[in-house]
Amino acid sequence: MSLSAVPCEQAFSSGAITSTIRRNSLVPSTFSALQLLKAAHKNGHVSAASEVARQADLFADLS
């Protein structure tokens, strides 16, 4: 197996996990956005904890 096949197979596997029977009505743009968010989170570009902290700071500034 070539090394270039591994990321491709991971992308297809991730897509299969996202596109389940319960989610088969996602429009293509929503599906793509969800896949991008999943990849960004997996690669450390997006963090739920840091986003919560940022939102809490914004809320505190409004108070």
Describe this structure in words.
This is HAT C-terminal dimerisation domain-containing protein. This protein is mostly helical. It has one domain. 70% of the residues lie in helices and 0% in strands. It is built from 3 helices and no strands. It has helices at residues 5-18, 28-42, 48-62. It is elongated and about 50 Å long. The model has no long low-confidence stretch (mean pLDDT 78).
Distance between the termini: 57 Å
Strand content: under 5%
The coarse silhouette is elongated
Number of strands: 0
Mean pLDDT: 78
Q: Treating each run of at least 4 consecutive H or I residues as one helix, how many helices?
A: 3
Q: How would you sum up the major sheet?
A: none
* Secondary structural class: mainly alpha
Low-confidence stretches: none
Number of domains: 1
Q: Percent range for helical residues? A: 55-70%
Question: What pattern of helices and strands is seen along the backbone?
Answer: HHH
Spatial extent as radius of gyration: 16 Å
Question: What is the secondary structure topology, with strand pairs?
Answer:
Blueprint: H1 5-18, H2 28-42, H3 48-62
Protein name: HAT C-terminal dimerisation domain-containing protein
Organism: Rhizopogon vesiculosus
Condensed summary:
This is HAT C-terminal dimerisation domain-containing protein. By secondary structure, this protein is mostly helical.
